[in-house]
UniProtKB/TrEMBL annotation:
Pathway: Cofactor biosynthesis; tetrahydrofolate biosynthesis; 7,8-dihydrofolate from 2-amino-4-hydroxy-6-hydroxymethyl-7,8-dihydropteridine diphosphate and 4-aminobenzoate: step 1/2. It is an enzyme of class 2 (transferase). CDD domains: DHPS. Residues 134-389 form the Pterin-binding domain. Keywords: Folate biosynthesis, Magnesium, Metal-binding, Transferase. Its cofactor is Mg(2+). It catalyses: (7,8-dihydropterin-6-yl)methyl diphosphate + 4-aminobenzoate = 7,8-dihydropteroate + diphosphate. It comes from Thermosediminibacter litoriperuensis. PROSITE patterns: DHPS_2 (PS00793), PTERIN_BINDING (PS50972). This is Dihydropteroate synthase. Pfam families: Pterin_bind (PF00809).
Length: 400
């Protein structure tokens, strides 16, 4: 039977095998197969015109300001539309273009094409976190006041029971936090946070020697003592903004470090947060925070990024972040999303309370898996693990 069908890009390699194309040609066709949209900010108007003409000559295109062509504006953001093959050719053509600010553009394009996200991260103690699939980070809050009561565990028996259940249900990482950062919360004293976190980390490590443990703290001394007790990862909601000494601890231990975006502090972050461009502003924050961390000795290959769902964001901001996750992935760092049972899910479900937000959380997890998020931080390990397992099985069909 003769017919024509549109193929799914995920199945291009499998279909090339069915066509019996030469395997050596597969990477060539893959580089030609997907249009990649790249936005470059602040290009001079003449430079924007050059980029558009060069992309057109290569078979691609570029979107520029309507007044860039006659230079009635001094600069323009530029959206490039091309395949990887187009961009490789553009970089080569621009090697001699040291005018109109295009040297910077060429370097950024070259860096984008050459950078690779880490395939795995090793903890200070040799435990490996591999990003072959979406990982589940289970939440244990050793606090009396976290927003979801089901996550609160205050004595060691409860903590170990929760950890045991998470391990049995397929958790890849256990995240321990001793300081509530819910909207409007006040921080407890450092001594209290230490008294909550360190015994919990020590107990989990002794009972479960192989599971990676993350410590959810922005305090340097808490992170230090938790790492010494056997924790593997520092999960900092402040992106190294609240305690200047934390970056030294991360560098000293060579620990994996989660840098989260937050606007304000937990006490005031939800008082009408405003963004002109939420994705751009978070990306700029990440770049600045990564530069700061790396300058202090943090291994850039061990940085994980978290856009901070619910931390200084309105309902529409959280939805836009999730809709545009691919744009954060362009930074080529492992991406963590912590959306479990949060307020925006309740709002989407008609103001459902935290206890009734499981299905909404699972929907977000499914979205994250399909968009290639590396870690989801959740309260309900079993349910989220099952969603991930099914979707990863489907995704694997395109890799076979």
């Amino acid at each position: 039977m003769k017919m024509l069908i549109e193929l799914s890009l995920d199945f291009l390699r499998a279909e090339m095998e069915r066509v019996k194309a030469h395997p050596a040609s597969f990477p060539i066709f893959e580089r030609k197969s997907r249009i990649i949209l790249l936005k470059i900010y602040g290009v001079s108007a003449p430079g924007a015109n050059v980029l558009k003409q060069e992309m057109l000559s290569l078979g691609g295109d570029a979107v520029v300001h309507k007044n860039a062509v006659d230079c009635k504006v001094s600069e323009s953001d530029v959206i490039l539309l091309g395949t990887r093959k187009h961009y490789e050719a553009l970089v080569k053509k621009m090697e001699a273009a040291d005018y109109f600010g295009l040297t910077r553009v060429r370097k950024e394009l070259k860096d984008f094409l050459e950078r690779r996200k880490a395939e795995y991260i090793d903890s200070p103690w040799g435990r490996r976190i591999s990003f072959e699939r979406t990982l589940v980070m289970g939440i244990i809050n050793v606090t009396p006041d976290s927003f979801y009561t089901g996550s609160r565990k205050q004595d060691l028996k409860e903590i170990l029971e929760a950890a045991s259940h998470m391990v049995e249900c397929g958790a890849d990482i256990i995240d321990v936090g001793g300081l509530s950062t819910r909207p409007g919360s006040e921080p407890v004293a450092e001594e209290e946070e230490l008294a909550r976190v360190v015994p919990a980390v020590k107990a989990i490590r002794e009972s479960f020697p192989r599971i990676p443990i993350s410590v959810d703290t922005y305090r340097a001394e808490v992170a230090r003592k938790a790492l010494q007790a056997g924790a593997d990862i520092i999960n900092d909601i402040s992106g190294l903004m609240f305690d200047e000494n934390l970056v030294r601890v991360a560098a000293e231990f060579r620990a994996p470090l989660v840098l989260m975006h937050i606007k304000g502090t937990p006490k005031d972050m939800q008082k009408d947060p405003h963004y002109d461009d939420v994705v751009r502003e978070i990306a700029e924050y990440f770049l600045e925070r990564m530069e700061f961390a790396e300058a202090a000795g943090v291994d850039p290959a061990k940085i994980i990024l978290d856009p901070g769902i619910g931390f200084g964001k309105q309902y529409r901001h959280n939805l836009e972040i999730l809709a545009r996750l691919e744009e954060f992935k362009s930074l080529k760092k492992p991406l963590l999303i912590g959306a479990s049972r949060k307020t925006f899910i309740g709002k989407a479900l008609g103001d459902a309370p935290p206890e009734e937000r499981l299905e909404g959380t699972l929907a977000v997890t499914a979205l994250c898996v399909m968009k290639g998020v590396d870690i989801v931080r959740v309260h309900d390990v079993k349910e989220n693990r099952r969603v991930i397992d099914v979707l990863e099985a489907v995704k694997c069909q395109g890799r076979s």
